[in-house]
Specification:
By secondary structure, this protein is mainly alpha-helical. It has helices spanning 2-17, 21-44, 54-66. It is elongated and about 55 Å long.
Length: 68
């Protein structure tokens, strides 16, 4: 099992070290993912129950779970 993991790690290590354009593309992909998951979440997708007390949150969850 350990030999298999070493071979897989070696395969990816050699593949990524030999990249020229691929490394730039992976950096671009990572920047886009950070943008999508962090920046857009902060500005566009606010939590639905923001500003409610704990009791109000419990009531909302119970209503949504038991609604027909």
């Amino acid at each position: 099992m350990m030999e298999l993991l070493r071979n897989i790690f070696r395969f990816y290590k050699e593949g990524f070290s030999g990249m020229t354009w691929g490394r730039s593309l992976w950096i671009l992909i990572m920047v886009k993912l950070v943008f999508l998951f962090l920046i857009m979440r902060l500005f566009f997708f606010r939590p639905a129950m923001e500003g409610l007390s704990e009791d109000e949150k419990v009531e909302v969850v119970v209503e949504r779970l038991t609604a027909p």
